[in-house]
Specification:
Layout: E1 7-14, H1 41-54, E2 57-64, H2 74-82, E3 88-95, H3 103-111, E4 116-122, H4 131-141, E5 145-149, H5 173-181, E6 190-194, E7 197-199, H6 202-209, E8 221-222, H7 229-241, H8 269-278
Length: 279
């Protein structure tokens, strides 16, 4: 029996948890790792190859961290993703405006400007100090870019959400379903890749990592498992079509009616310690 194609609305490839900033409400919880690190190139490339062997198309594929420009093998990672550009609508690299690309990276971006875009999260001159230089470099190289404003004026999405509270929130299945169906991460199919594992979003990945929910087929797809590709493809369909994952019970969801906070507030060491103690 022929299986239906698998289209992913967007997917985030996490290549590093190192970052030049320590944002309190970081979506990948980067400041809360004791020893954040770059993921090894061999493992990242294996994850890329395996992911694209399991899906048919992906609307946007976002290479991110942490801060991806900190990864010394970013050009090689981009080269590997470009191999699959026929399956991808657009490849994004998301940076925070604190670093500049190397000559090698800039040339790679220029050569592949038909399928690549740099997304610059601008947190204002005090944090994203190199945005003007970065924009000039990209313009001169004719590399497509987008500035996402998180500082003054019209702040993107009205600010950030707080996903750092991992307590149980939804007491009934009806409440859980209603919260999940309005979550922006669940609409259309949004996935996150980390070292051979596929999650609905990084919030799920973090709660699995903390032992809040089990690492099973309802929360995580092991892309390296001994299952056949057809079985793993069906696992992807199941997780995309499920009304929620177990980790959703501990989440406020990406909802427009949730409380929004000022972006990129920098966390102190004391606050990090308090956050870890709460887990």
């Amino acid at each position: 029996m022929k299986q239906t194609p698998i289209h992913i609305h967007q997917c985030a490839l996490i290549i590093s948890l190192r970052c030049t900033l320590k944002c309190k409400l970081c979506l990948v919880f980067a400041p809360y790792y004791e020893n954040p690190k770059d993921y090894e190139l061999v493992e990242v490339n294996k994850s890329i190859d395996t992911f694209f062997s399991l899906i048919d198309s992906c609307g946007t594929f976002n290479i991110q961290g942490g801060e991806p420009l900190m990864h010394k093998h970013l050009p090689e990672i981009i080269d590997r993703v470009i191999v699959y550009k026929e399956k991808i609508g657009k490849i994004f690299i998301t940076t925070n405006g604190t670093l500049l690309p190397s000559v090698q990276l800039l040339e790679l971006l220029r050569r592949n400007c038909d399928c690549l875009q740099i997304n610059i999260s601008n947190y204002g001159a005090s944090l994203s100090k190199r945005v003007p230089e970065l924009v000039e470099m990209l313009q001169n190289a004719e590399v497509p870019y987008r500035i996402i404003n998180y500082s003054d004026g019209d702040i993107h999405f009205g600010g950030w959400l707080d996903f750092t509270d991992h307590t149980y929130k939804h007491q009934t299945e009806e409440a859980l379903i209603n919260n999940a169906k309005d979550c922006g991460y669940r609409k259309g199919g949004n996935l996150a890749i980390r070292l051979g594992e596929l999650y609905f979003c990084y919030r799920v990945a973090r709660r699995v990592e903390l032992g809040i929910v089990p690492k099973d087929e309802h929360s995580c797809i092991d892309m390296y498992s001994a299952k056949s590709n057809n079985e793993k493809r069906q696992n992807i369909r199941d997780i995309l079509n499920a009304p929620y994952t177990p980790a959703c019970a501990y989440c406020i969801g990406k909802r427009s009616d949730a409380k929004h906070y000022p972006p990129a507030i920098q966390v102190t060491k004391e606050e990090i310690n308090i956050g870890v103690e709460k887990l």
